[in-house]
């Protein structure tokens, strides 16, 4: 990065920080971020794409180079391709020549074709909130050295979005998610950190599991929002009834649950996860007799990770593998291992 660009970057960072400190409203911060990125990189399109926490559809919070009609109509499902991997694992999308990687370009593209593009994760408190999108009509408009800069801007967007949501939802004053009566994700992270410290001291293992309800949006569309919430509550109760007093469960996302299985090695953790998967598969929920399945990812401390960040990363990658493998499966950290719908473990 040239000294001129370096000075410009530092100036923009200072401006964004000043706005961040002055407001809890994310719109103003996002506007400054997008404006400074466009000025710095001379990109054709720049957008903050966020995940709606209620529906888990992607929508555009703020954009440059996009028509008003496109921004308002934009609504995409979370996928298991490059965008899905970005949101689940944090792996950035870096396309230097769209003609050489047309499949990835088509998935990443917003309104207009481009020559090159970059997408970086927007995440806070170990939770994906969306992604930053920039593109150019030129090929090779972005270099690998630009990635850390764009990630910094994405991190500022994450702070703004998270601060706004914390303010609106008053998360710090209420540890319970009242749709499911489970512990919310933020305080659940404290529980995981405590488990790590305990395991270090006692030389124990524990398993961390994330279960994602398959085709949950179809349930909401078919039976209505109230019934879909009832399905979530009943799945939460089913899981709670199979936990020991030393285990714990929280709500990870709109249709996801996170479970801490204490004193459990890989084999015990995987078998327990698959027991939950089969129980949910075999249960009819609500008065409508709704049947659904779940996909699960599991990682074990300290076998797969030794810090909170890496443990969460491992379990999310395992869940992503289960979803890509066709859903109604449990996958665990470590290359290629899965538990199929018949309960068999294979690689």
Order of helices and strands: HHEEHHEHEEHEEHEHHEEHEHEEE
CATH class of the largest domain: Alpha Beta
Strand order of the largest sheet: 9-10-8-11-12-13-14
Question: How many domains would you count in the coordinates?
Answer: 2
Helix run count: 11
Q: Keywords for this structure?
A:
single chain; about 350 residues; alpha+beta; Beta-Lactamase; Alpha-Beta Plaits; 2 domains; seven-stranded mixed sheet; five-stranded antiparallel sheet; 11 helices; 14 strands; about 45% helix; about 20% strand; globular
Description:
There is one protein chain. The chain has 347 residues and is of the alpha+beta class. It has two domains: 167 residues, Beta-Lactamase (2-Layer Sandwich), CATH 3.30.450.40; 171 residues, Alpha-Beta Plaits, CATH 3.30.70. The protein is 45% helix and 22% strand. It has eleven helices and 14 strands. The strands form three sheets. A seven-stranded mixed sheet has the order 9-10-8-11-12-13-14, sandwiched between helices. A five-stranded antiparallel sheet has the order 2-1-5-4-3. Strand 1 and strand 2 form a beta hairpin. Helix 8 packs across helix 9.
